[in-house]
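Our preliminary data section would be incomplete without showing what the modeling component actually yields. Below, a chain of 483 amino acids is followed by its predicted structure, encoded as tokens that our downstream tools consume directly.
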Amino acid sequence: MKVKILVVIMMLVCVTFFSCDDTTDTIGTSLTDNLDLLKVTTDTFTVTSKSFVADSVLARNTTGYLGKIRDPETGAYITGDFMTQFNTLEDYEFPTKDSIASLLDGEVIADSCEIRLFYDDFYGDSLATMNLTVYEMNEPMKEGVKYYSNFDPIAENLVRTDGLKINKTYTLTDLTVNSDTRWDADSYTPNIQIRLTDPYTDKDGVTYNNYGTYIMRKYYEDPTRFKNSYNFIHEVCPGFYFKINEGIGSMAYVFVSQINVYFKYKSDSTFLGTSKFSGTEEVLQTTNITNDEQTINRLVNDNSCTYIKTPSGIFTEVTLPVEEIVTNHENDTINTAKLIMSRINNNNHGEYILDVPQTLMMIPKDSIYTFFENEDIVDYKKSFIATYSSTYNYYSFSNISGMITYMDETRQKGLESNPNWVKENPDWNKVVIIPVTLTTNSYSQIVKVVHDMSLTSTRLIGGSENSYDPITISVIYSKFSHE
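Predicted structure:
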């Protein structure tokens, strides 16, 4: 029944293409003749798949992931540490120096200073005790460099060995804040507070009573240091790195990092002033993901299924039977090629099961780095999107005919100049299924595609020892017969 419906649809499409003419005197006859000449056929082919280790991914997200958790389904440990720089408004100004009421020995000081890491979501137990260390960056991370999720600023000697270093024990539910305030969503955003109130010594050996005082005096020495974010990052504050030391059970999704400098100033009266410098999209932020390598390798070697795990964990590699699809159909048009990737339900039903990835992208295996580095957008020729259907428990790539055509054309061009091209290019018909996060505009057009860095996990039907029905790709061909 489904095949008949599809044939009718294809016929209607063909009517649309062939009904445009300068005259209408033979339209009835021409339509009838064209439909009689249209031949539609279908076929189904088996697809193979396997898990693929994602050693690292381009960390271009604006969310910082901080914490350590254990996936209850697979036992895999995931740690998130992140680095952020801070933004300043163009031509930022403190109050005039002579209006500052916070003074020490006649010099301007900050009363206090802090970093707050605001999170809008988290995974795990908000009462799990965690411990982190805040490291001052020695220099800014470089503009234009592609930083991946395995980039470690400490290992790359980008943190100050003699700089600010603060240890902080925390729970995501801050019990020092009363419950009435925490439940007031209009006035309170959950956050991790890190006080910068200890004496601070800068690179020139000058010691200040706290980090806020350092920031204020840098401004009054030369306000151009605050003229824009570039100057602020390179001349005042190159950023901070937040690294988890101990604890397991929570992962915070940090959407804003903020330095707050508190001081008093005088006008008609004395007021409490606050200067805020935030980590935003205008400045660089990267997350360093550490996966349990032993567990990841164990999962990849499980051939009874394939895995999708984020962040930066496991993708699924699929081999498309391109040669089988095009053989004996050289003169046909491939109208549709539908591939369904079905989930295997999780047998664990604990409180902290990881979410199912919602959006998957299919791209050629040789494009898994360049697609994201070039900030490409889905084009439905060499890249395709599928969203998770909770109703059917699968991801449907409804029509990847463009991918089949592209791969076949690439193969044919390669063989024209090199008869060993297929053997020398073993990945020519392989694609990788990658979890992604999409940004759309007001017209629902995709304008940005980045790696999904949130905590998700699922198993898919597939693998060389698959005990379920095999994965298949359903193809519809059409051509006009001249017999």
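The longest strand covers residues 250-266. Residues 1-32 have pLDDT under 50 and may be disordered. Preliminary results of this kind motivate Aim 1 of the renewal.
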